[in-house]
Amino acid sequence: MMSCVPSEQKHPQAEGSPLPSSFASRFLSHSGISLKPAYYQLILSSFPEIGFFEIHAENYLSKGGPARHYLNLIRQHYPITVHGVGLSIGGEHVINQQHLEQVAQLVNEVQPQIFSEHLAWSSHDSTFLNDLLPVAYDEATLRRVCEHIDHIQSHVKRQVLIENPSTYFEFHRSEMSETDFLAEMVKRTGCGLLLDVNNVEVSCFNHGHDPYQYLNNFPVAAVGQIHLAGHTTDSNAVVPLKIDSHDEAVSHDVWALYKHTLSLTGDCPTLIERDGNLPPIGELLAEAHLADSIRQVNQQESRREHAI
Amino acid sequence: MNTQFKAALLTEDTRFYEEIKASSMEEQEVRLNVYRNNVTVSLIEALCDIFPVTEAIVGDEFFHAMARIYLLNNPPSSPIIREYGQNFSDFIRNFEPAQSLPYLPDLAALEHAMLTLTHSEEYDMLDQEAVSDAFTSVEDPSTLSLRVPPTTHILVSPFAIGSLYQAHFSDGHQRLNQVEINKSEYLLLVKSHLYAQLHVINKEEAIFIKNLMQEKTLGNAVPESDSFNLGETLAKLIEWKILTNVTQIHTKQPL
Hints:
heterodimer, A: about 300 residues, alpha/beta, TIM Barrel, two-stranded antiparallel ribbon, 12 strands, about 40% helix, globular, B: about 260 residues, mainly alpha, 2 domains, 3-stranded antiparallel sheet, elongated
């Protein structure tokens, strides 16, 4: 049966206390949502039906305080995925070693179902710009990105999934398509991919590409997780742009793209990603349950095709 | 190339524009502006989260304008964004339009210290019973050593910034404009369980706690002052649950 989880992992899972096997199957079958401090109390009092929670690594690197405390309580009941936003894999300089050690320690402690990062940069000359900035798709960048991924995977002692970016311009110096760049990155490092369907919609819209064609070219065999999020539209008069804002519900066009994505990847762990304008948790749970029902339909259709 | 990219994000530098595919310079600028906006807006939001009382005092508009100037000249260095704003207090001290609020730099420093303290490590605290057991188990309580967490600190400000901070978080019981701001205050910043606590204390209590932090025994920590009330102060330390250890210091008996 077709599955989006990479069959061969260059970097096996780190040794440590194994999580209950029910966590692994729950993560694989039920979609998750972003974990936000505003939801901590409610999660621990009502234990909502949800596949997993995803955290941003950089928000959980304190020695103490509420974030780590609540994470430790919540992870006793739910599978967790760790999403890094600060390693600057696309940066021109070496990876910030101190930061990598901290992230590696968190990953080792939490033993998440997945650890992911971005094809982007955020740090340069000891400045952290707090945004996911784009990289050129040329051989020099590819080599550097692969070195950084190798370095990270050897430190966290497991496979990392790298997310396709949302971008607002393309580089003149790019020599290959984004999907070719990602495919080569997977081939050289053994990393997996996190396919953010909203980013596909946003980037393709901003660059005049067909998102369905983009997905058809995507190296789907390496995809280990899917992200769905909301976007907004920039109202400037020069060029219409979609903005990857994570502060809205998932849009209709992204749900449609998601169905197409699943037909290519097979069933795949899916996250409803929300960072701003947080709604009552019930709205995010409902989106996750909608993703679950789309996944069920996709699995039925795929079984029917196999039967024929 | 990222040196130019970074310069384009934080300044008016246009050298990076030639890297951007677009049909006009205007379009290059619009596309780059999305990133400029992401950087500045996300960092302004971060500063609002770290300095909510400062923001409430000066208002959104003033705070955002001040934060924008700060961040363009002092972008963060760490990917852990809650650590940002280390020198925001110093910046405010030299920020001309904020000079009419001389207490603002101290308030910002207090907010940063409180957030840093909340994220510092936790220590096991003694409950009331454990403290009274320690007191009843010795003949002479003045030989006891009372410990607070090593992350504890005491601040003194010429302004009532502690009362201001507490008024902001008091759910409307106290109003910011009811605080007599030109009154100096001693502040105890201490962490019990998950969060930093802020207590406005008097000078004698400040001296006493400072002495405890220097590991003086209870007898030696009591300040020489008629207004100091040991019983009341100990009751506060127990109520705030900020004692990590109460032990007897064994001094060598003279031969």
